[in-house]
Structures are given as structure tokens and as C-alpha cells.
Amino acid sequence: MKRVKKGTLALSSLLLSLSLVAAGCSGGNGNEAKNNQPANDAQASTNGEKALEPYEVVMVYPDGKQNDLGVVQDAMNDYLKTTYPALNMTVKLNPIDWSAYSDKTNLMMSSGQKFDLIWTANWMNFDAQVNKGGLLPLDDLLSQYGPDIEAVEGKFHDGARRSGKIYGVHVHQELGNPQGIAISKSLVDKYKLDLSGLKSGEFKDLEPILKTIKDNEPSITPAVGPAFPLGAYYGSGSTANIVGPVGLDLRDTDPNNTYKVVNTYETPRYMELAKLTREWFKAGYINKDATTPGVDIWKKFQAGTAFAAIGSDLDILAGTEIGAAQLMPSKTSSVGSDVIQVPLNIDRLQTTKLAATMQGISQTSEDPERAMMLLNLFYRDAKLLTLFNFGVDGTHYVLKDGQIALPDGKTQESVGFYHDIMWQIGNQMLNYTRVGEDPNKYKNYEEFNKKVASNPSPILGFVFDSEPVKNELIAVSKVQSTFDPGLQSGQLDPEVEVPKMIEKLKGAGIDKIVAEAQKQLDAWRAANGK
Amino acid sequence: MKTSNRTNPFIILFFILFSAASLLPFWLILMVSLTGQNALVKFGYSFWPKEFDLAAYRFLWHDAEPILRAYGVSIFVTVIGTVVSLFVTSALAYTLSRNDFPFRGALSFYVLFTMLFGGGLLPWYLVYTKFLHLNDSLLALIIPGLLGGFNVFIMRTYFTTSIPPSLVDSAQIDGASEYRTYFSIVLPLSLPVLATIGLFVIVAYWNDWFTSLVFISNDKLYNLQYFLYNTLMNAQYLQAIASKAHIDSASDRILPMEQLQMAMAMIAVLPVAMVFPFLQKYFVKGLTVGAVKG
Amino acid sequence: MQMDQPITASSGKVRTKSAHPFRKLMKYHALWILALPGILLLLVNNYLPMFGIFLAFKSLNFSKGIWGSEWVGFDNFKFLFMTNDIWRIIANTVLYNLVFIVINTALSVLLALLLNEVKNKLFSKFIQSSMLLPHFISMVVVAYLVFGFLNPDLGFINKSILEPSGHEAVSWYMSPTYWPYILIIVNSWKSVGFGSIIYLATIIGIDKEYYEAAMIDGAGKWKQMTKITVPFLIPIMIILTLLSIGRIFNADFGLFYQVTMNSGMLKDVTEVIDTYVYNALLVSGDTDLASSAGLLQSVIGFILVVSVNLLVKRISSDKALF
């Protein structure tokens, strides 16, 4: 921060010129910048209109290997140079493989390596990063250099707020998801399965359908994991999450308990779903390798050995609601045969969900202002977003009726740049859709967001400060990682293992977390009059 | 006397079984990599597939560039690393082997202490990245494996026990410099131990995945083992994130098939399996000449 | 190995006496230069990181940096011992290593003895090659090989053994009970071949005269083995065992991390100090916990090595490490 202080004045004036550029007054921008040019001209380059020293913004995010990464990076830099010369910035894309993302970012932070923007999330060490001082507070930067971020995400910063300060910028996207089942249409047709019972939104009503498949199709797994009712479906449908496994039990109808913080593993609903999953597992409805690394359920759909994926996130479509069976476009195209989705739950608006995918700025950034300016561009400039998400026009994609398609003769593998990480940065609603997707995808998102926002969690806006119990949280997450996969997939007997887990959680200090959460929640309620 | 020329048939049987146990896992993986998709899903992995298919290898051949590159990185690092390592290790060991070297005791302890105490992963990482700035470079894959205290002591023991001091003496009386003595007398006489240590080092470099995991994020610098590790792990992570991020995973790629993963494992094992029997002679010989004592 | 030190020592003495002081200086100058690359490497790889042990007594804050972060005394260790995890992890590390030492030594010696009885050169070479091969492949590949057998859905054991014989398939990567055995088998599979070659090398080095003399006395194969070969092997067995005991606090990271696929369900029986440090540092980002656990391992390991060395010195002084 100190290093760039001298340029702060210049920066704010540049921001002005920046907005003018974007407004289409490209002719006037040089003029503007000149007029506002401060004394700091020693570093100005030849044309005299750049008040900022060149700066390379390093972006760290998880992604697989892209052969043409350099090509895309160059294209982004050309674009930035011609469109926003005043910013005088280049980007360096530094993707890290998923398998190493947590490891490498931890090491980069602890070694103080220089980088600027980093993708982060509350399930990817966000809290540890904040507590350890790895991320910068963004409040001032946002108000100065993030007008386009504020325009769409201004109301949704709570998820990233820690001790009153904002440490991450949420990606502008869907505010929640529908969860439920995805099933193979051909089998539904073959056995004329009646899906109307699922309007209840209860997984147990799926049982007769799974049984039909089990009885008639010995080579087909009725329900394939790793997605299960005890995952997102339970968390979103039955609890208001605060931190880790701690939250409110929304199924508890006692009005005195509305704001009672509990260990969500202890609720009757958890046990109910765990037992149901266990029964299904014992009945042979669930694949045994559900928790094995590298299992791809959609491959099983492709091979025709799977009937239903249960508990996974579903597509957001026009008319998505609980029990509404619709064709699921995304999986239908990737699997190559029709897949139907039936939502059984729709997320409420929850603070924690607003931290599920964010961009933060590293404390090692040498120019956080510039990092924020670039981040802001991702919330306003569809061309920049397109370059980042789809690559170079003509080389990595072509537009067909306004949708993204692969160039002729190219496959996802051979095209050199192909990924689906729109959810990692910027304003998703500015993106193109791919051929095969609903062209109205983002319109549907907007509609869906209204639906989600109209059903807020009772503690929306409450942010838990994890600092007092950070050690306990680590210990608790270890216990969770031990038991979760086995219970979620039905491989462990919940009547034996859940009590064991609860005991271990107590040993790890979960009661202290519950008490701390209750204390903070009560204080928040008092302050907010809830 | 006659019986001693014959091997007891039970021993032969035992070793046939034992060799089978050593080799069967490789066979299984090879067969999985050659199994057709349908047979795989239906019958699982088996030692003799019901249906052969070269699809995985065709796919690898088609998209060979990343694997070839990973091969290249592994070979480069292994060759350079081994040559430099042998030189550095033997040079230090030679100095330590000289009884007239006045700081012999102190230097021995300097080497020894590194075998007793370590600073841990994080400080080690900090030295490489903050002090040497070596992350994302091939040097970061080479330097960590160059010198091990144990190897230094094995070489020193060999030098002190197997090279007659009179030879060194007479060479130096003849006016040979220290360097010449080392290069043209000591090293040529030490081929067995150089081969043994060399083999240790080759194996360590070839099999290393951890330094890549820690230092390399540029996919062009992945070595073969890390490439393999990554393939297996990425598949797992991509599954895990979908539910956590609540992402819209619109058009996921259908991930590599089991056969492909196994074919890649085969390709990583192959060079070791091919080269090793030829080096084995030196290896066993090297061990007989004092490798046991540190 | 049978060469004795005194010769070298005395000749060294002669050499120093006869050397001209100036030449001597030049000579050492050259030796220093030869040693220099090694000295520098050890400095970088080993000594500089040692200064990092103070991190275990700090609460590392990235924005304050390593030097600016707060000192917290033994707080990190307090947290390390807060849950009972650490005791289980230490127990796992030590117990696995002990079992590995016993089983590997016994099997290696047995194999070496039997291998020595194989008279056919070509066959013997084939055996040696096949049993050494596992030693020369990486743990990443071993993980693939194990996965080939244990893949719960398609793996050889479930699909070709358990299911056809009417048994229920096992979710291997979820069932901790089996893993102590699996890890022991995998470890033996990978290291017994190498161990037996070391012993075989010793056996080959035994003077043939002993056996000829024994045969003249009418001693059979069994007698020769127990009265000649085994006694020759015992010192090496002791040394190798003691060396392994010195490293009993260091687990084979690759084995416990790769082969188990770092599966959370198995942690109770598969977590060892090395994986614990790794997971704390890299997965949960807890630098403080990682550095305190790492220091603990280093210190106890150091004490063990030094005491084992004392022991070795007692038994046979020339075999001591230092």
C-alpha cells in the first residue's frame, strides 16, 4: 500500500477517465488524463498520457491445463492495452490444478510470494487466510475502484465480512441452487415411472422408484453418489448454517428455539436422512465406490449403468421449482442422452453461501488498487470476461446465434483453451452461453435469484467471527472429514457411528463453538432488533 | 557335493510364486489398460480381459504432447541431477576420506548433523522460494536431491577402504594435482560405488513427485510422476467442488477413463522395468563393497 | 569393508610429515574446493531451514511476516496436545515402523538365505530383478497398483474374488480395519526385495573356506546355514535394525499419503506424523500446528538417533554412525 501512495491521486483521476473510456468517449480520454495528470510524470511513458507505472496483475485461480494459456493471456493484454491504456496494466494468469490448489496457495501465502488476485471460498481456507493476514481488507478499495462491483454485489458483501471488514468479492451469479435428483429419461419412460410423488420435496418418496429399477435392472445402479441427500440438500433444506456443522435447526418448530444454535449432526432430521441413506445402501441402491476418489457419476450415466444422481445441484431453468420434472440441458449434452431433473429443495438466501466463490486480494500485492481495478473490469467488461472464459474468437470458439460453439473440427481436448470457470470471477450475467444451453440461462438466473432472495434465512446478515474458536474449528473439521463420507454414502451405520462422531466432535470442542456462536448471534440479534 | 549343484525344487517353486507376487500387480494394471470399456464396467478389473481394446493408448498417442513433455522433464532432471549429484557427493566424500585433511572431523560432523536434525517442510520451502527464488523452475526439482549425508558416508567408506592410499600417495609424489588425483585415479577406481549411488539417485529423481507438488505450478514443468498423481487427484477434486461451490457445472468434461489412468501408470513404469535389469549387476556388486556401513 | 583403518591413518601421517608446508596448504585448498559444492548444498538444503524451528513458537501472520509475527511461547504445542489426536498419530507412526522393521528384516533374511540356494544363475537373476522392481517404482504408481486391486466398484478383489464367491464387496477406502494389513503388505512388497539383496550381498561376501571346512566335517545344508551364514548376517541385521529404530519417528510419507489416497475415513489407522504435518500445513493452512508438530518430530527423532548410536557403539564401535 505504501509503495503506491504517491500515485493515489493519479489513480482516482484515472478512474474518472476510465469510466469515460467505457462510456464510449475513447477520443476524449487522452485529453482527460492529460488534464488531470499530476506532478508524477517522471515515470510517464512516451505518449505522456499514462500516469501509472506499468503493473502486472497476477491472477491465481484453480483450473486444469490449458495449452493455449499464453495465447489467451496475450490476447487479454492486447485488449487491456488498447481499450484501457490509461490503466497501463497487464495480467499474468497463474492457474493451479485443482488437486494442488489448497496446497500451493497455502505455501504461496506463507512464503509471501507476490500475487494479486486470488480465487477463494469459505470452503477453501478463506477463514484461515483472513485470520493469518493473507488477504487485504477491501472496503476502501471497493468504494474507490469498484463501482461496477458495488452495483451488482453491493448488497451481498456480508458473506465475506470478517470482524467488520470485507475480505472477498463474491462472484455475481446465482444466489443459491436447486438440489434434487437427476435421472435417466429412458428408464423413466421404460418403466413409466411416476415422478409426481416427489412434489413433497422428500427423498423418502423416491424409494419405490429406486426399487423398481433395482428389481428390474440388475446391471444398473439406482442411485449413484458422491452426491447425497445428506450433502447440500440437508444443509440447505433443514438448517441455517453458521460455521462448520454449527447452525440453526430450521425443522425445530418450537418458537423458543428459532434462534437456538445447535450442532446440526444432532438434529432428528440428520438422523432421519442418514438412516434413509443407510437403508438404501443396504438395499443395494447406492454404488459402493461413491466415496472413491476419481469416480465420475456422469460417466456411469454415459455407460448406461446409472439411473439417478441424488442430492446434487441442478440446473436453474425457467420454471424451476420443487417437484417440477424438466429436461436437464447441461447433463443431457455432456452425457449424450436425456437426463431429467427434479428439484427437491431450493436454497434460501444464506450469508455463508455468499462466500462460496470469491476473489480476494493478496497482502503481497504490490499494487492492490490496480488489482481492484482489474477485478472491477470483470464486472463490467463482457469482452474481457469472454477472453478469460472462452478464449480468442475464431481460435477457441465461434459464435453461433449468439452462443459459444467450438470451432469446426475441434473438440474440448484439442481446442487448446476450454474451461467452465465462469463461476470464479466477475459478473456471470455478462457471459455468453454455450450452444446446448438455454440462451436465456442468465435471465433464468435473475428470476431464480429473486425467488431465493424472497426466502432469506432468519439470520441473513449475521457473520460469525471464527477467531475465538479457530483451533476448535480445525479439530472439528478433521472429525467431519473422517465421518462425513461414510455417513453420507450410507456405508456407515448411523445408529452406531453418529453417536461416536458426536462424542468425537465434543472432544474436538464443538460445544465451545456452539456456545460462541450463540453468544455472537444473541449480540447480533440485540443489535439488529431480531 | 552333487546335490549342491541342484536347486531344491521347493525353493524354485517358492521363488516362482514370489516373483509372481512381485509382478502380478503390474500385470493387472497392464491388462486393465487394455480392457474394453464395456467389459470393464461389466466384469471389473481382471488378469485376462474378456475384451481387448487399445483405445487408451490410442488416446494417449493422439494427445501425446503433455506426456512426452512430462517424460522430457523427468529424463532431463534425472540425468542432470544424477551426474551433478555423483560429482558433488564424491568430491565431498573424497575430501572427507583424506586422513590428512585437518578439518576432517568438523566437516564430518557438518554432514552428519544434517542426517540427525531437520528444520521441517515450511522453512525448507521458504528457503527455496524466498531466498533462492527457485519455484517453478527445473532447478527446484534438481537441487533438493543432489546431496544426501548417507550417500556421502557410503562413498567415503568406499574411498577409505577400497582405494589403496599408497596409490594416491605415489600419484601425488609424482606431482599429480589434487584434482587430477581425484579425477583420474580415485573416480575410475570407484565405479562400483558410483554405480550403486548413481542408481539410488536415479531412482530418487525418477520417482520424485513431492518436489513438483511443492514447487511447480507451471504445467509445462510437470514431471512424469506428478503428472500421474495429478490425473488421479484432479478427477477427485472436480467431483468435490461441484457441490461445495454450488457452481453451474454446465458442460463438464467426462473425465479420463480408468483404462487411461492405468495406461499412464504403465507408461511411467516401463522405462524403469526396461532399464533396471541391465543396471542390476552394478547395483548388487556395489552393495557388496561396503554399502551397508554409513 | 574388511580393510582396516590403521593403514590409511598411518600412511596419512607419513604423507603430512613429508609434505612441504606451502604445498600442504595448496593441497588443502584444493580439497576445500572439491568439498565446497557439497558444503553449500547442505547449507541450503539442511542448515538454513533449521533456523525455521523458531516458527514453532510463533503465531505466524502473513501480513506481519516471519519476523514480525508474535511470539506465543508453547501455545502451539498446547493446541497440538489439546485433542488426543497427537498421541494416536505418534502411536501409529511408531507401531507401523516397528512392525515394518520386524517383518521386513525377517522376510529379507529368509529370502536372502533361500536365494543363495538357487544355483541357476539366470533364474537367480530373474528373481532378483522381479523382486527389486517394486523398489524402483514411485509411490504414485504403487497407489495405482493398489487401486487396481481395491477399487470398490471394479477392483480385482471385489469384482473377481469376493462377488463371484458370494461375499459382500468391501468399500476398501472406507474401512479402516483392513488398512493396517494392507499397509504392511504393500510396504513388504515394496521393500523386502531390496532388503534381501543387501543380505545376499553379505552372504556372497562370506569366505567359501568356511563352508568347505564345514562340509569336510560333514555338516549339512541346515547346519551350514544356521552355524555359518546366519551368524555372519547378525551384525548387519542389528545395525540395520538400529538405524531403522533411529528413524522410527519418520514415516514413509508416500506410503501413508498416496496409497491411502489421503482418505479421511481411514485417518484413525493411517495418519502418521508426516501426513499430519503435511495436512495441517497444506490442506488446512495451519502453519503454527504444522511447525510445532514438525519440531516435535525433529527433536524426538534426534534424541532417538543419538541414543541408538550410543547403543551401536556399545555393540560394535566401528559400526557406529558417529
TrEMBL record, chain A:
Top-level taxon = Bacteria
Q: Where does the UniProt annotation place the signal sequence?
A: 1-22
Q: Which residues form a coiled coil?
A: none
> What InterPro entries does the record point to?
Bact_solute-bd_prot1, DUF3502, SBP
* PROSITE patterns from the UniProt entry: PROKAR_LIPOPROTEIN
DUF3502 domain boundaries: 458-526
Question: What keyword terms does UniProt attach to this protein?
Answer: Signal
Record-linked PANTHER family: ABC TRANSPORTER SOLUTE BINDING PROTEIN-SUGAR TRANSPORT (PTHR43649:SF17), ARABINOSE-BINDING PROTEIN-RELATED (PTHR43649)
Task: Give the protein name, as stated in the record.
Answer: ABC transporter substrate-binding protein
TrEMBL record, chain B:
What are the ABC transmembrane type-1 domain coordinates in residue numbering? 71-279
Instruction: Fetch the InterPro entries from UniProt.
Output: MetI-like, MetI-like_sf
Where does the UniProt annotation locate this protein? Cell membrane
Is the Ligase keyword given for this protein?
Answer: no
Q: Which regions span the lipid bilayer?
A: 12-34, 70-94, 106-126, 138-159, 180-206, 260-279
Q: Provide a GO CC annotation, any one.
A: plasma membrane
Q: Name one GO biological process term.
A: transmembrane transport
Keyword Chloroplast carried by entry: no
Per the record, membrane topology reads: Multi-pass membrane protein
Instruction: Return the PROSITE patterns for the record.
Output: ABC_TM1 (PS50928)
Q: What is its main location?
A: membrane
Which controlled-vocabulary keywords does the entry list?
A: Cell membrane, Membrane, Transmembrane, Transmembrane helix, Transport
What the record says about family reads: Belongs to the binding-protein-dependent transport system permease family.
What is the official name of this protein in its record?
Carbohydrate ABC transporter permease
Q: Native species of this protein?
A: Paenibacillus montanisoli
